[in-house]
Design brief:
The complex is a heterotrimer of chains A (about 160), B (about 650) and C (about 325). With about 160 residues, chain A is of the alpha/beta class. Chain A is about 35% helix and about 20% strand. Chain A has helices spanning about 1-10, 45-55, 85-100, 110-115, 130, 145-155; strands at about 35-40, 65-70, 80, 85, 105-110, 125, 135-140. In chain A, α2 crosses α6 (about 145-155). The longest helix of chain A has 13 residues, at about 85-100. Chain C has one domain (about 5-315). The radius of gyration of chain C is 19 Å and the shape is globular. Classes of the chains: A alpha/beta (about 160), B mainly alpha (about 650), C mainly alpha (about 325). At the B-C interface, α15, α16, β5, α20 and β6 of B face β1, α3, α4, α5 and α9 of C.
Chain lengths: ~160, ~650, ~325
């Protein structure tokens, strides 16, 4: 019962939304405000994962712009790839993309996913995400802030 | 020596012909009134007497209706499975014996036909006697069948002695003079004997042993027609002839029925052998029928004739629908067995693409067995529920306690039945094959499919058009006045209505409306179709790995594991997990073996002690048989003296 | 049965069709607001549905017609239930065709279709979801039938119109022990059947904690849209059933006037919204049960339902 009091006292903690960015492309299916993403960690240090988790938390709330993380690539509109593509995750990443129904997008989050970042010269590394598949949106940063991630998502959702 | 197509065709054709004769005779007895036939010279001392009334006619017609598809099916089946000549000869004889049992009009004729039926079925169970499992199942079955027969023999002897005659209508005429002690004895003995034949607890253990080991057409006949004879015996002797009994009769029937139903379906839901699953499902359904009979008897003994009529109609409909879907189920299982050589669900799978006809047939049977709408069993179960919920009107404590408990048991049975049938159909027929034998399966020949299609047609009629059975059921109901026959039963029209009570249902309308609704849903899914990219066939989502082997699929054992855990105390499974490590390092596991053994707990806890006790007692009695001829002569003289003294 | 009653029935089917995503969206919004977030808005499920309908139609290798047809069967059976239930008016033309037992049967028909689809995928998660779903369905069925039994006793009929009108005419029945126990039992059943907390977490990403979601992991695009829509519709019709069985005021009669139909529509919308909101708010305070604690919960609800029936026999107020 103390929770009810706590909920009342804390109230709304979500940050006010920034201005909507200019859409870089039309939403894949033509329906604005709906984007389900399947997150794939290709070999990251989990820094970007923490920022993505923060982006979908109560403080930044990416869901209010229509984005959601789902468990199965079949339910998704695209991939949210983090980390540099390691050898072991190369084929699984491609298989995951193949399982996403068309039309689909690939969003690379973090410097490692965009251009290899700190691990570009590693021995177990194949390359950045763009080296193995066409990437539609890149979110640079090491790690990118939740606001940057959300801004990138909003360019796809159009909301 | 394996048979030729001609011999198989003769056997199958004769079986089907007997079936048609049975259906015709049965229907004419239902609508035309009783038929009487007396042949005094056939048997010395007693003669043979047939008396086919509407009740017997229903069972004869039901048996015949099962025999027709089985006969057509067994033509190619016998050829494929290389049947010897003996089973081919016994198959039509078995059907003929089964047709005689409900037609019997006197105690002697009844017992004679009963034994003929039992002997024929035993011979057929032992068709593949070169297999050890078949021999042990046959021995088990033989002993239990004869014990049941002994019980029935005793009961009928008491009945005819008390009733003053051999013929059933003589006994029925003198029923008022039978003492209540004799009635109790007859009731209990017939319940034991006929209940064992019907597969009721606790004397059911032969059913899941014998039915899977018999050839599939024989399993179908046994499960769909022979077990009905047990129910027929209970209705004829205890309810029709012995007339209205005390309240505890109905109560006993209800309790045994409910326990059999729940136990049977529980074992079915954890069984991994397809035919064992179907056999336990027979115990479940016969339990439901007995529950309905018990409800009708109990309600009738309290004067609620209208509701008793509903319960009795439910019992009869459940018998008919069980006959339909169980026949179909066993015939489909036989088709799978002939195509793959497998009964084990853990090794089957992927049959939907390789044997589409058989898959559809089993799907219809599974739908009927699960009691869902559009299934053959739905109407009977609905009627049973209606009779149970309309019962306690006069503040009767016993009824007020029994009816909710029965509904609870019935509901648990239905729920677990759904789980069992989903497992059988989903694991056995869908997804991908789990073994090379299943992968090599090919569809059954056309005549086997024809036999199955006939049974499927019967399931469809029972599911959406029970109106066709309405007049027949009314006649049969009228012939059992002591269980609600005095009142008008439910009206089986397009709408099922309960006279004098509020409640109606229309299975045909629900089916039609469901089809329309599904088409509507399919139409809805076309919305936005013009924006879609081209459709594609893609590999399964294997969580990123390359491919899914068929070993990664759920098996029947794993599917039922949560249920098995929930009912751990009742099932008492024997599980064993063995972990083998690599020789080089105890940290790496090479192999994990999981073994589970689900024995029948009733067999373990009831039969084993009894058999043990009998064996011990027999060993003790053996001491009186040392082998001396002088001692045996002395026994003979002593026995003769005792008989002379008593006879004086 | 008048034509206005038919219109009311058509209206309730359309209302369920259109309103189910709104109910789901509303529940997510309530949860979001209580968590301090803004949420996607009440229209988010509708946006997701429209988007999924425009995606590629996918057939996974090795699946059969069962996988392809299951979403339509679930959706179709739910639409049929929406047409049978007395949501807006009592005069549905299908009311004499199916009573509460028939409705329960149709509900399980949908469950079975989806379970078979989960097995048909041949993946480990599909089988796992199906296995867990059927275990829960098997254990829920006794409770639901007993609760139906308890509700049929006062009105002496299991036909829905009869039960609802009997409760509306005799409001005193609602506070009888039988009725209250049946309400609790039915509420637990609805939570279990629709896969809400504490039985199942509808928004989990961890496959090993999934029950309903695991069965539909393989569905994509339009079929996924149907499955999600059908899930929302099942929740809506079950909440509507609960509402009208225990709070039947506002339901139009068997021969309703236009005004009565409008009142009925507003009433059911209000009742379902309130119930959905209460359910969503309740979910914020509880966590998901371990899988093998669920049979204990269902056994408890079974006992409540059994007590409900017994109580309704011994404490029933005499009706006509």
């Amino acid at each position: 019962m103390t929770w009810i009091g706590k909920i009342g006292r804390v109230g709304r903690i979500v940050e006010p939304a920034d201005e909507a960015p200019d859409a870089t492309a039309a939403p894949p299916t033509g329906v604005t405000g709906s984007l389900q993403l399947r997150h794939v960690d290709c070999g990251s240090c989990n820094g970007c994962e923490l920022e993505i988790a923060a982006a979908f938390s109560s403080v930044y709330d990416a869901e209010r712009f229509g984005a959601r993380v789902v468990a199965s690539p079949r339910h998704a509109d695209g991939l949210l790839a983090t980390g540099v593509v390691t050898r072991n995750m190369h084929q699984p990443l491609l298989n995951t993309l193949k399982s996403v129904p068309e039309p689909r997008v690939v969003i690379a989050v973090g410097d490692c996913a965009c251009n290899g970042g700190a691990f570009a010269q590693g021995y177990g590394v194949v390359g950045s995400v763009a080296d193995v598949m066409p990437v539609d949106v890149e979110v640079p940063g090491c790690p990118p802030t939740p606001q940057q991630i959300i801004a990138a998502l909003r360019t796809v959702t159009g909301r | 020596m394996p048979c030729s197509l001609g011999a198989a065709a003769l056997s199958g054709g004769l079986t089907a012909a007997f079936g048609i004769v049975g259906v015709t005779l049965g229907l004419s007895a239902i609508f035309g009134g009783s038929r009487d036939l007396q042949i005094d010279w056939l048997l010395p001392l007693a003669g043979v007497r047939f008396d086919l009334g509407p009740l017997g006619g229903l069972f004869v017609a039901a048996t015949g209706a099962v025999a027709v598809p089985v006969g057509i099916y067994s033509v190619r089946y016998a050829q494929k499975e290389h049947w010897a000549r003996f089973p081919l000869v016994m198959l039509p004889l078995f059907v003929a014996a089964m047709l005689l049992v409900p037609a019997a009009g006197s105690v002697t004729t009844f017992l004679l036909s009963w034994e003929l039926m039992a002997a024929a079925s035993l011979a057929l169970v032992l068709s593949e006697h070169h297999r050890g499992a078949v021999r042990s199942a046959g021995a088990f079955y033989a002993v239990m069948t004869q014990l049941g027969f002994a019980s029935i023999l005793l009961a009928l002897m008491v009945l005819s002695a008390a009733g003053g005659g051999d013929a059933f209508d003589t006994i029925a005429a003198h029923v008022g003079g039978i003492s209540s002690g004799a009635r109790t004895a007859v009731f209990l003995l017939t319940l034991a004997g006929f209940g064992s034949k019907a597969g009721l607890l606790p004397l059911h253990a032969w059913l899941p042993r014998a039915h899977p080991e018999a050839p599939s057409p024989v399993s179908a006949l046994m499960s769909a027609a022979m077990v009905n004879m047990g129910i027929y015996g209970i209705i004829r002797i205890d309810l029709q002839i012995l007339g209205p009994g005390p309240h505890w009769w109905g109560l006993t029937l209800m309790i045994f029925g409910a326990v059999s139903a729940v136990f049977g379906v529980l074992q079915a839901s954890v069984a991994t052998d397809l035919k064992t699953l179907l056999a336990y499902s027979t115990t479940e359904n016969m339990g439901l029928v007995t529950l309905a009979l018990g409800a009708a008897t109990l309600l009738s003994s309290y004067g609620a004739q209208q509701v008793a009529a509903i319960a009795m109609t439910a019992a009869l409909l459940l018998i008919l629908s069980h006959g339909a879907f169980k026949t179909l189920g066993f015939l489909a299982a036989g088709s799978v067995l002939a195509a793959t050589g497998l009964r084990d669900l853990d090794k089957l799978g992927g049959l939907a693409r390789r044997m589409p006809g058989t898959t559809v047939m089993f799907g219809i049977a599974a739908l009927g067995a699960s009691g869902l709408p559009l299934g053959a069993g739905f109407v009977g179960e609905w009627l049973l529920l209606q009779s149970l919920i309309h019962s306690a009107h006069d503040n009767n404590t016993l009824l007020a306690l029994m009816m909710p408990l029965s509904v609870g048991a019935f509901a648990l049975t239905t729920g677990l039945g759904i789980a069992a049938m989903v497992k059988a159909f989903g694991v056995g027929f869908l997804a991908r094959p789990r073994s090379p034998a299943a992968e090599a399966a090919r569809e059954a020949p056309a005549s086997m499919l024809t036999g199955m299609a006939l049974a499927a047609a019967a399931c469809a009629v029972l599911a959406v058009a029970p109106v066709l059975l309405g007049p027949a059921l009314k006649h049969v109901l009228a012939s059992v006045p002591t269980v609600g026959g005095g009142a008008a039963g439910p009206t089986l029209g397009t709408y099922l209505r309960l006279p004098g009570l509020a409640g109606s249902m229309s299975p045909g309308l629900i089916a039609a409306a469901l089809v329309i609704a599904v088409l509507l849903a399919l139409g809805l899914s076309r919305w936005g179709a013009r924006h879609r990219p081209v459709a594609a066939v893609v590999p399964l989502w294997a969580c990123g790995s390359e491919s899914l082997s068929s070993r990664m699929q759920y098996t029947a054992t794993s599917f039922a594991e949560p249920l098995q855990r929930v009912f751990d105390n009742v099932l008492q499974p024997d599980t064993d997990v063995e972990v083998t490590h690599f020789a080089e390092s105890r940290y790496l596991v090479e192999k994990v073996t999981y073994r589970t053994l689900l024995a029948d707990p009733v067999e373990h806890r009831l039969y084993t002690p009894v058999v043990h006790a009998v064996t011990t007692w027999a060993h003790w009695v053996r001491r009186a048989h040392p082998g001396s001829v002088h001692l045996y002569l002395a026994y003979g003289v002593l026995g003769l003296l005792i008989v002379l003294v008593i006879a004086r | 049965m008048s034509t206005l009653a038919d219109v009311a029935t058509a209206m309730q089917v359309l209302a369920v069709l259109a309103g189910a995503p709104l109910v789901v969206g509303g529940m997510r919004q309530v949860r979001a607001r209580l968590e301090g977030r803004a949420g996607g808005g009440i229209g988010q499920p509708w946006r997701d549905l429209r988007k999924q309908l425009r995606k590629q139609q996918i057939t996974p290798q090795g699946t059969t017609v069962v996988f392809a047809l299951a979403p339509a069967i679930v959706a179709g059976s739910t639409l049929l239930i929406a047409a049978i239930l007395p949501l807006i008016s009592l005069g549905s033309p299908l009311d004499p065709a199916a009573d509460l037992f028939g409705v329960v049967g149709l509900l399980f028909l949908g469950t079975v279709a989806l379970t078979l689809a989960g097995l048909d995928t041949g993946t480990a998660f599909g089988g796992m979801g199906s296995s867990r779903e059927i275990t829960i369905a098997a254990l829920v069925e006794p409770t639901i039938l007993l609760a139906v039994f308890a509700l049929s006793v006062p009105g002496h009929s299991a036909n829905l119109a009869a039960i609802v009108s009997s409760t509306a005419d005799h409001p005193g029945q609602l506070v009888s022990p039988g009725s209250l126990l049946a309400f609790v039992a039915l509420a637990i059943v609805i939570i279990a059947e629709t896969g809400r907390l504490p039985v199942d977490n509808p928004s989990t990403h961890l496959e090993l904690t999934m029950i309903h979601e695991a069965m539909v992991l393989e569905y994509a695009g339009p079929k996924l849209a149907l499955v999600e829509w059908a899930s929302g519709m099942r929740l809506t019709v079950l909440l509507g059933l609960l509402a009208n069985l225990f709070l039947p005021w506002g339901v139009a009669g068997t021969h309703p006037s236009v005004l009565a139909i409008l009142i009925g529509f507003v009433a059911i919308t209000l009742k379902v919204s309130v119930l959905a909101g209460v359910l969503a708010a309740g979910e914020v305070f509880i966590a998901k049960f371990r899988l093998f604690r669920i049979p204990e919960l269902l056994a408890g609800s079974f006992l409540l339902a059994l007590l409900a029936v017994t109580a309704s026999y011994f404490f029933s107020t005499p009706t006509n």
